[in-house]
Structure prediction request, 1266 residues.
Amino acid sequence: MSTQLDVAASRVLRRVRLAHALRLPRYIGRRILFLVPQVLLISFITFALVRLLPGDPARFQLGPLAPEEAVEALRRKLHLDLSIPQQYAIWLKHTLSGDFGTSWSQGTDVGEDLLQRIPVTLELIFLSLLVVFIVLVPLAIVTASLSRNWAVWALRNVTFGYGMLAGALPDFLLALLLIFIFYTNLNLLPGPEGRLGILDTAPPFVTGSILIDATIAGDWSTFWSGAWHLVMPVFTLAFVYGAPVFKMLRSQMEIALDAEYTTYGEALGLAPRTILARAARVAAGSTVVIVGTVIMFLLGGDVLVESVFNMSGLGQYAVQAIVTADYAPIQAFVCFAAIFTMLVYLAVDLVHFAMDPRIKVVGSPT
Amino acid sequence: MWLRISSTLRQLPLWQLVFLALFALIVVLTAIGPDLAPYSTINACPSDRLVPPSAAHWLGTDDNGIDILSRLLAAPRTDVVIAVIATAISVLLGSPLGVVIALLESRRRGGSTVVAEIAMRLLEVIQAFPVFVFAMVLVAVFGGTKVNIIAAIAFVNTPVFVRLVRSDVLSLVQRPFAEAARAVGNSEWRVGFRHILPNAIPTILVQLSVTIGFAILLTAGLSFVGAGVKPPTPELGSMIASGAKFLIIGQWWPAVFPGIALGLIVFSFGVFGEVMTKFMEPRAIRSATWRTGMTTETDDAPVIGIVAPTTNAILAVRDLEVTPLQPGASPLLSGVSFSLGAGERMAIVGESGAGKSVLVKAVLGLLPAQLQVNSGQVRYGEVDLLNLDKSKLRSLRSKHIAATLANAKSQLHPLTTVGGTFAAALAAHQKVSAPEARRRSIELLRMVGMNDPERRLEAYPHELSGGMAQRVCIALALMYRPRLLIADEPTAGLDVTVQRQVLDLMEKLAREAGTAQLIVTSDLGIAAHYCDKVAVMQAGRVIEINETRAFFDAPVHPYSRQLLDSVRL
Amino acid sequence: MFGWNTATIGVIMTVLLEVRNLTKVFSLGPGADLVAVRNASLTVDRGETLGLVGESGSGKTTLGRCILRLIEPTDGSVFLSGNKITGLKGKALRDLRSRMQLVFQDPFASLNPRLTVAQTLREPLMLHGFDRSQRKARTAEILRQVGLDQSMFDCYPLDLTASEQQRVGIARALVTRPELVVLDEPTSMLDPSARADLLALLQRIQRETGTAYVFISHDLTSVARISHRIAIMYLGHIIEQAPTELIMGRQHHPYSRALLSAVLFADPRRAPSPYVIEGEIPTAINPKTECPLYGRCPIREDACGEAVPPMIEIRPEHLSACRRWDYVDAA
Prediction:
């Protein structure tokens, strides 16, 4: 009798699991489908806004002394005489074929600029995340446990205010303070001169990341110079933007360690390390969501840090472009940032779904 | 109201009070700061350029010769006012929108959910813009006036509140009181705004203080790059910016002081937010006293009807007292004594709050950190459990003393399959290979009557029914044939027919292995038919112990009599 | 459809609630339909209590909610005092709420933690057009009726014990003088002593006000104490319906018998009956057309697996959905 029941139940279970498995590709497909109109909308809004920036690009380019006909001619050439939707259509056509326009203030091709600058920003973000994962994540896990170990106790005290403190500190201020302490006073680290010192030569361009390119070229002195120049920017970003991750992970760990399954695990005689690991698995769920948010913040925050340290990354590029009303770079940056953000959101949702068998619908209310 | 304020304040640690005071100071400065400035805040004085901190200028002067202290007193007004107004707009726009979207989504009817989904996608679009750059563009396009900065920041932050309120409302709408509000006759919109939204306020407040802090930083950041408030208006970000170039060459004061001020302001807002959360938590205004309508005469009279302590007791508890760590708190267990012989089955009965679960945890050595054993003894045979070394205690667990705690499904680790939990439990006490662990697990599942055990191994706890989960826990408990099994409410939440199966199973297996059982329950029926002895607990004390028949025939203590009367048909 | 036979007209005058062929199906996705309630029919007379008993997954909670139209039935109809209420919408539906109410299982969770007792009790009255003086009088009266002190008006739910919270819940349900109150496991989260008190309270109120109850519970002993008639549910079907003494004395469905025999009396001398069916309740997703107990039934025969057995009137007022209802004792 029970066999029949159980078989029936298992059959349903299998079918439901299959439905889940099929849902995933369908869901991804749907999200990507939504992505297209969303990106189009973003690019159009940016386009329109940017066109509203004060100043006349044609006039800016040719200077105040240029004759009116020349300015007119340039305006026509730049399609500035057309309506905004028409200009947008032209821009879209060019972009889809890979032509991102020209930066009129620098005179460079935006596409090439992007190629050079995106790796810089990505390198900064990646390294900052690495520091967060190597330092802050274990710290959060370990200090959540209530073990009477003196080392844990000391660490708990040290990290006590970290979450709130780092949330209150502006990243550009931390950057300045670090420069002041380690460069101006202690002379231990290089100043805000960019990715390399004045006397260094950049390695031949392969990926755009100095660390990687220098390694490929076997140029160790440049590698170390690049590394030293990265210490302060990476530390600033990791310190400030690691805080939400740290806070969330620690509080989720505390909740997990307080839960019934932890007590039960102890009753089963599991080792403390095992119990900590099991709690961490549960805490990871919400943390992943926060990591996604933090990646987005990093993209925004590194704008200021890049500017302070002169890193010639995408963020600094965008800031300069806004200040000089340079359309094409702003457009390109915003589109890139928006697509990047959407993909990060999607990745976070998927990772969360994969990690937690309890989630039935991908992308449940965050 | 004032009672709440003072009681909240009293609970706060010192450093929070300090920052709360600082917060108050900042509010004051926002109001009258510029009037307190000793020097002019905008008139340049080139002869006094970059004077380091001194008696005349406590914080020095900047590169225009203006006294920094004066500017610092005036600056909070700019930053804080912008941030507060912008955040207020975000909250007032975002929260109702969040409620509306959540209500549409929970209707589960085609049209409404489509609208809600489109709204959320639009929000995603707005949130996809990198916040800082977007604010910069808005300000650059519409001009750098304070109003535009406020509008830009408000626009950028509104989606945050929409999302937050939406997610909160979605979870609150499932709660019984929301359903009750509908049952009483409220329209769904009234339920959303009159009942649910007020309960979302604590979440909103926390986010509010975070957002204000963020808005202040955003204002400062914008001004730092020259896209926000323009000089000569005193504003912290632009002060840092103009001081930055001098910082690097050693003249630190024009940048550092505004920087510290900025950090302190944001931090104080954060503290204020945390304090507000604590304040807003619905709390008991007067303590709910124990009013069950039953006599509570718990005097120090000796326990009635104690059966002579068995020699060679498997478990002997003497005068156990457990109290919370705070001094002066009343004990949760006091003077608890009983003993259990080999193979005996004893029921611990009592109502909720009597201390039964605390007793279980104390015996197992699993008391939470806020509780401690004040005095008393717990012996397992000859071994003193309370003073045992941690690792020795761990080795006793499962092999000698096993336990199942209440609510089987939440005891099992939610992200581990049944097989995984078995493997972990086996590995904790012996080296065992994966195939061997699997074989033993299947054997154990069969022992507890689960059909198709191979498939069950792959299941996660939330996929099991209550009965199945409890069988898994029984298997885990009895796998080493321990000499003592402690079961805390083994049938809680189970269906009646399943209860009998589970109890019969426990009984059979324990009898075969000669395991003594300590069953904690509030169901007297279980005590009557599955146990040899009954101990009654009330308010942390054991007030009567007797053999089952004797107890049910003639309970002595008045509380025991009331208990029996209330469950008899 | 079971047939009324004796004195039909006279009976109908006293019938307060009639549920006819109510079905509720939840769609879990393509091809997965959860049949929570299937073809349920029952009646409740004025001033009487119908006990609705079942284990988890029986559909009793869903049925209760459908009666009150807090969940929309997929099929079937509900009549209150002869008026069909399953078609009502909007304001008419909201006005209906003053005549039928619900008491919840979790005493604390069913109260808005931010409202005082007074506010909670006032709200139904405000929604249904009682003026200020009427509200004041009525809230004071109902508080007294549920045995709570007037000083509790300004208390918040957290200030009260579980038993007191539940009394507030009951007061809220009764404040508009409804004709019918559905109680969904009102005592399952209370201690045994509080349980007994609450049942006594409910009985007293019924005597005083003539309110009818639908008492939903998995605890057969509580239900038996308070109900005049009992309906037992399994997997969304009502499988037996009869006056309390008849069902408690002798059951005519294997599941009813199993349920009763599973009860553990708080008396070592009343040994539990050995007749208990094995296994667990199967899933209600895409159920087959067969007797719901088919997989676990000790007296099943082949015909039971081919169609859903109809409700048979064994004797007046006693209905069973088992083909072999007279063989139930024999197994």
User: Anything to note?
Assistant: Residues 7 and 471 of chain B are 47 Å apart (CA to CA). The longest helix of chain B spans residues 68-106. Chain B touches chain C through 58 residues (CB under 8 Å). Strands of chain B lie at 313-324, 333-341, 345-349, 371-380, 383-384, 401-404, 484-488, 516-521, 533-538, 541-547.
